Amino acid sequence: MMMSTTGWRTLLYKETLRFWKVGFQTVGAPILTAVLYLMVFGHVLEDHVKVYGTVSYTAFLIPGLVMMSVLQNAFANSSSSIIQSKIMGSLVFVLLTPLSHWGWFLAYVGSSIIRGLAVGLGVFVVTIFFAMPDFAAPLWILVFAFLGAAMLGTLGLIAGLWAEKFDQMAMFQNFLIMPMTFLSGVFYSIGSLPPFWQGVSHLNPFFYMIDGFRYGFFGISDTSPWLSFGIVGGAWLIVSAVAVHLLRIGYKIRG
Amino acid sequence: MPAISFQSVCKTYPPSRQQRALGKPGLRAVDDVSFQIEEGEFFGLLGPNGAGKTTLISMLAGLSRPTSGTVSVHGFDVQRDYAQARRHLGIVPQELVFDPFFNVRESLRIQSGYFGIKKNDAWIDELLHSLGLSDKANANLRQLSGGMKRRVLVAQALVHKPQVIVLDEPTAGVDVELRQTLWQFVAKLNKQGSTVLLTTHYLEEAEALCNRIAMLKQGRVIALDRTSELLKSAASNVLRFKTDADLPWAIAQHARITGRIVQLPAQNAHEVEQLLGALRQAGVAVEDVEMRKADLEDVFIDLMAGEQTPLEVAR
Fold first, then answer.
1. Hey, are the CB atoms on B113 and A10 less than 8 Å from each other?
2. What is the chain B residue with the closest CA to A82?
């Protein structure tokens, strides 16, 4: 048991060290991108939009941008690591070890959570210079940040296993993850949409991550945080079951 | 208990979409292979490209699953008891792969950790020293030459002190110095009790190092015996000469031709006389004529040129 713990913790350490060694690209750049979003959208819309009645648009935008950064970077971490090592052949160093499929899962999703939260924290620290949101329910902030990072880290793992070339990965990222993130209420409250698009938004699991996360700041949200927790938690369990199954059968990594 | 056991192992790759459309079957890369390698053996697995050597090693390593049959390492099934089997195995892959994010020491520490070994620096230092990598310990893998990267691959395979070492064409495209360093080190590990499975295209290396050899052709074992017995099975002598002329077909079909150099099996003086007479009659001028003992390459060529069914020498 001790051996297997050391094994997956080593893979977690290696995956974390991997992104940290290129920190400008993996942590610094996403923080800068989020700040640019805040500056542009905040400046243009600050005087025109009030959300939930009293919240300034810039303050409203901060949790959304933080969560978007958490999600996108958690996904990027596991997906890019696996596709790169598959294509370069270095995945063989992990394939030849006694690590179990659970070990793989914990390590790849764990490092994605670490990167997602590191980038999210960085975005938050920089953006509070523009506006300070409240902390109405801090525990929900932590719960949804963790669940969001875990969910996207797991999806990244699945995408990394499935994709055989960078083009397929770009397709997964740009045609699935990116639209679902952007259309989840990062930049607006779902309540401001026409009823049809509100209904469509409620089918997007990413909406519940951002809505629940935002509830932690403002104590107000479009949906109950408990409902969001149930949906996000349930969705994570489902994608985790898929990811563990794919790792167990060696999907596209063992012939 | 054998160190490695292949029992009735078959591997068929499913047909590609194009092959399916044309009604073609998949590729049978390994066809009913059974043999065992005992503890402490230095075993050679030889065969031309596409014979199934790397497929067999992939199944041993758990990189690929047999379509049927079982593979085990020290009694542990590589599928069912994969963790135990892999702890006994150290595999040097054929491809020159590396992780560009880390330096040599980091790579070796990480590889140790995967096997549950936390503090392994003493053994890592010994590996670095034995493989001539001490001064490269803090160099990033990207900065190393191909030969140096190959040494790191060997160190990574040995970092958890495996009892069975598998070297898949470890000397392909590397310089003489590395070959000698590698063979001295591997021979030392073998003397200390490690089992070694080697695939190589350098038959003189296999002849010098391996106690026992299996030869594969089209996924089947066509010869399996002690190296000395295999050498006896070939013509005991070889007639070697140089010529610029084309050989008559009757002679050419038995010859090993490398540029101007021609080598022909010849058991005794009578056969030598007959061959030289036939060449003279055909107007083929020869020079630098000499006789030498048959080597493993002669055996290999002989077997590979034979029928597709397993030869009698296979056990």
1. yes
2. B99
